[in-house]
Amino acid sequence: MPFDGMVISAVVTELKEKIINGKIDKIYQTEMDEINILIRCFKEKYKLLISASSNHPRIHLTKGDKENPQVPPMFCMLLRKHLQGGKIVDIRQKEFERIIMIDVESYDELGCISIKQLVIEIMGKHSNIILLDKSKKIKILDSIKRISADINRYREILPGKPYIAPPTHGKENPLNLNVNSLILLFEKATLGTPVYKAIYTSIQGISPLAAKEICFRANICDDEPISNLSYNHYKILWTELKNFIGSTFTPNIIISKDDKHIVDFYSVILKSYEAIYDFTIFNSISNVLEEYYIKKDLFNRLKQKSTDLRKLVTNTITKLYSKKQKLQEELITATKSQKYKIFGELLTAYLHLIKKGDTEIEVVNFYDANGNTVKIPLDTKLTPAQNAQNYFKKYTKSKNAIKEKQYQLQETDYEIKYFENLLHDIENASNLTDLEEIRNELIEEGYIKKKKNLVSNKKNTINKPLSFISSDGFQILVGKNNKQNDQLTLKTASKKDFWFHTKDIPGSHVIVICNNREIPERTILEAAEIAAFHSKGKMSSNVPVDYTQVKNVKKPSGAKPGMVIYENYKTVYITPRKNITEILDKNKSKSN
Question: How many domains does the chain have?
Fold first, then answer.
């Protein structure tokens, strides 16, 4: 997340356009390290979010709402005292650093105009929001994070202390550089230092990502040691640096071409990324940041909420596979029981040859085609007839064990299939409700204990399935978990609609709503592709997908959620395209 000088510059430009001369109406501290400022400017209302979070520090306009604490923290009360009702008279970036300064004109206790300054330092875990009194030699009034001398002797951030800006570490403002000063700056670095590292460690506000972009634009390998640079290289590098920081802002979110997940964001288009990523362009850097952090927050919460579910399901699958292996070994042992029957019959035939105290007897095996002999162990505590009966009992017991082991293996395979489907659903959950439905299912099936204080809500509705429109205008519905699959196949779909599912691969139930129309070949292939895409085989080629009319799909009595049997089906083999959902999504707008 390169919240660097370029992004800060874009944010400052936007804030100047929208909230300069605005009046501060209200201030809330929604988190321990986050404030929201409500601003009125030329009849428009804005909300400015400022976060000093160690993980996601940022500043941008927002439309989001958060619950405000009933009792505002002390820092919030101080901000209200000095800034509420004030007028924003200036917003600027400190040189090219990740620091924004907002000047607010307000009246003090004596009714005199005074200037208070809100300093926002976007510095990773050292991020802070600091309120200064500019009329008193830039004295600190307070900060959202207080820093004592015990933590930082160079720079105390405490009420009453003078404000000292973060150290520059010898970095220069890129706006003040020319070719010769760039050369002098790089001469301070170690000769073997790669070009891109020399850029971001020597120049203010340039992130490693931006440094690599500048090298790309200059057609210089970013790992090239600076000792290999000629004067002409420096000239090109300085030109591209100047062009880069002077670029017209094109706020964008960077998206993976493969699975379309959000990779990053930036304030200009990164040419070095054009061949490997897609870009979604916005007209506002605040909209980019809002979208990015909402998705990031959702991703983190989904990851956090799904961890215990994923662990439970994967552990259960591991145990089931171990159980299956043990059952298979026991079945192999049990299938050797035929010899017990032979031993019993041979002993019965040769009873007269067995002497008291014999531990074994060797007799001709008349079941052997070659007439070979076989040694039969004997229990000296039993009579010859009892030894024969003992082998018949072992045979009967083993024969019964075979049936039991085969049944247990069938049940274990069934459970493995069920839990692999659950794991697929967990990994593809797109919101917290999807995960909650899976959790409730595991509670109902007895795999998770229900919390005593949890109030049951039987009126809970099942989340809506995904919906697409085929190229022929047929609606395609996709279940996102077992409960939705059951609802979709057994209740929503009519008997003449078509049902699709990957063959022997965990995945979603897919329904094509026919409305008494004949389903075209193209729609069959598109629905099959959607089924393959929403399965564990989405990254594979030639994925087998079975399809049949819903009337041929049945749920056995006592079957687990999402588990069905079907007959009279056909199979197609599909290689799902990575953008199939986007292609079919476009059909929605055509049909509207």
Answer: 4
Stronger pLDDT, 83 or 434, i.e. the higher one: 83
- DSSP category for residue 397: H
Q: What is the pLDDT of residues 300-316, one digit of tens each?
A: 778 888 888 999 999 99
Which parts of 491-538 fold into alpha helices (H)? 521-533
Instruction: Compute the Cα dihedral for 52, 53, 55, 59 and give only its sign.
Output: negative
Give the separation between CA 55 and CA 482, rounded to whole angstroms.
35
Can you give 534-591 as a three-state secondary structure string?
CECCCCCCCEEEEEEEHHHEECCCCCCCCCCEECCCEEEEECCCCCHHHHHHHHHHHH
Query: pTM for this one?
Result: 0.67
CB count in 10 Å sphere of residue 294: 12
Closest C-alpha among 20, 7, 157 to residue 97: 7
Pair (132, 210) in one structural domain: no
| C-alpha distances in Å from residue 261, one per residue of 58, 278, 297, 408, 430 | 21, 10, 14, 41, 12
Q: Are 527 and 506 in contact (CB under 8 A)?
A: no
Question: Which pLDDT tens digit goes with each residue over 433-467?
Answer: 888 888 888 888 888 887 765 545 445 566 789 99
Q: Residue 26: which domain range?
A: 5-143
According to DSSP, residue 227 is labeled G
Answer whether residue 298 is part of any domain. no
